[in-house]
Amino acid sequence: MITVMDYKGIDTTWCPGCGNFAILNGLKQALIGLEIQPHEVVIYSGIGQAAKLPLYMKCNTLNGLHGRTLCYVTGSQFANHTIKTIAVGGDGDGFAEGGNHFLHVIRRNPDVAYFAHNNQVYRLTKGQASPTSDAGFVTKIQTHGVISLPLKPLALAIAQDCSFVARSFSGDPEHLHEMMVAALKHQGGFALLDILQPCVSFNRVNTFRWYKDRVRPVGGSHDPFDRKAAMELALGWGDEIPVGMIYRSNRPSFESQLSVLSDKTLCEQLASAG
């Protein structure tokens, strides 16, 4: 029987109260609930506070370059599509430095779960505005407030026909667990779970209370296969922020279209040839 201790890595260095703790615990619980063994998982990340998560997990991991996480997962899936592949990263790592790779991984559609920790600020470098920071957000760099419009990753993913687009909030562990399990079980390609995750040290605007007052579960009448309705939800941001399953698309995964992988993984083929 798998337990939380089977996935315990080194001690964390996150700030007390950080929303990352809920994400870390949620991921462990989701993997345990799905009875996925540590050796059956590989987690990739880039640079940032969110990207430290693989260090705190005992399984196959790689902590690489800033913004390059989704390059690694694409190659990983090509090499061994039988292992559960997970990518984690923050809004800076994933949507700024990694923004171009974000677009192309959706286009290719590998069978990967991507957990994006979205706190609307850079944390590792101590509080600069990120691509998802709201207009007017004041930092020690943007002293007069952000003047650029915020990137909307869910809308961008839907525009690219991402096969799975969802959002959750680290302050709602039950909902977060549900969405993580759904993303991990998804087998139709790339699964994006945008997780609203307040930063208690460098974002005093988008706090836990700020999100709790605004997040609203997507209603049961919403059809995630309705692209127009999904886009309207993805663009919603203000007094109400929708969370839940936003969009689904029936697309073949990247790996399923490669005949060379129909019988064996690339790793197995290379081993037998060597």
Give an account of the 3D structure.
Helix 6 links the parallel strand 5 (164-169) and strand 6 (191-196). The protein is globular. Helix 1 (20-33) packs across helix 6, helix 2 (69-79) packs parallel to helix 4 and helix 5 (153-159) packs antiparallel against helix 8 (227-235). It has helices at 20-33, 69-79, 91-97, 99-108, 153-159, 173-185, 208-212, 227-235, 266-273, and strands spanning 41-45, 60-63, 84-90, 113-118, 164-169, 191-196, 215-217, 241-248. It has 274 residues and is α/β, with parallel strands linked by helices. It has an 8-stranded mixed beta sheet with strand order 2-1-3-4-6-5-8-7, sandwiched between helices. It has one domain (4-273): Thiamin diphosphate (ThDP)-binding fold, Pyr/PP domains (Rossmann fold, 3-Layer(aba) Sandwich), CATH 3.40.50. The mean pLDDT is 95.
Short description:
This protein is an alpha/beta fold and 274 residues long. Helix content is 31%, strand content 16%. The protein has an eight-stranded mixed sheet, sandwiched between helices.
Largest sheet: 8 strands, mixed
CATH class: Alpha Beta
Helix content: 25-40%
β content, as a range?
15-25%
Specify the structural class.
alpha/beta
CATH third-tier fold name? Rossmann fold
What are the secondary-structure elements, in order, as H or E?
Answer: HEEHEHHEHEHEHEHEH
